[in-house]
Write a structure and sequence with these properties.
271 residues, two-stranded antiparallel ribbon, 10 helices
């Protein structure tokens, strides 16, 4: 009688193609963000409040504002502030998805699949930026329909470029904060407090010279200052005047997303 030897081999699952891998991650991340009604409400509410209520209630009281020698209606001057509020609020909500993944155990399940961290990171960044940009574009469309801004086509293009840079920059900042902060409640408090502080410590409702001296100092290191000034200069004067603020936004966007990427890779190593 002979005994037959049984041999077992383990073959690891084959990683999917790069395009399919990235698209699947992007779809999952976007669905996670877009289907959360609480996050959408938190991102859209401040934008609609300031666009509809603050603009209409203060427009007749404040009147026209002089900015860089140009006399502007209050609705035109306020538009960059509304867009900045939308960008910052929506960026804060994208960071909450990271905590939702970890508390539900989804993060651990994700890494049981042969998924490259670089693709996971890129998909998360793209989904977050696209959602922030979509909400901000909604604010821009609603504002354009209601107030009929008299911008030239080249100025609209410059404004969109500034809006994209601001979306990428603040999505990276809040994602990095969500990765570096391990407590969900701490991040919630940070998001709730930082949004009004950043927006109103910038030249949002007035020019920089009209701010109190302390706020003038703070506005120099406040990234919202460059988002507001960049979008305002782009809409009114075009790329020729807006480029210094746009360069700062570009630098913040690169630094924030590199920091977020490295922090996320280190965090996933412990899962």
């Amino acid at each position: 009688m002979t005994v037959t030897e049984l041999a077992f081999t383990q073959v690891p699952p084959v990683a999917p193609k790069r395009s399919a891998d990235l698209s699947a991650v992007f779809y999952r991340e976007y669905a996670l963000l877009a289907r959360n009604r609480v996050n959408l409400i938190l991102g859209l509410t401040p934008m609609l409040v300031y666009l509809l209520l603050v603009n209409t209630s203060l427009g007749n009281v404040v009147g026209d504002i002089t900015y860089r020698g140009e006399r502007l209606p209050f609705s035109v001057f306020l538009l960059p502030m509304v867009l900045a509020m939308s960008v910052v609020s929506a960026s804060g909500t994208t960071g909450m998805a990271l905590f939702q993944e970890e508390m539900s155990g989804v993060s651990t399940q994700l890494w049981s699949w042969p998924l490259r961290r670089s693709r996971f990171l890129l998909g998360k960044l793209l989904a977050g930026v696209s959602l922030v940009l979509a909400q901000s574009l909604l604010a821009l469309v609603v504002a354009a329909i209601i107030f009929r801004y008299p911008f030239a086509l080249s100025h609209w293009i410059a404004l969109l470029v500034a809006l994209v840079l601001a979306s990428v920059a603040f999505n990276g900042l809040y994602l990095a904060a969500a990765i570096l902060i391990t407590d969900y409640r701490t991040f919630m408090v940070l998001t709730s407090v930082s949004v009004p502080v950043l927006v109103f410590a910038a030249p949002s409702l007035s020019t920089t010279k009209q701010l109190p001296l302390v706020l003038q100092w703070l506005s120099v290191v406040n990234p919202v200052t460059y988002a507001v000034n960049g979008m305002r200069d782009a809409a009114i004067f075009g790329f020729g005047t807006a480029w210094p603020s746009l360069l700062v936004l570009l630098a913040v966007a690169v630094a924030a997303n590199v920091l977020a990427g490295r922090a996320l890779l280190r965090r996933t190593e412990n899962l």
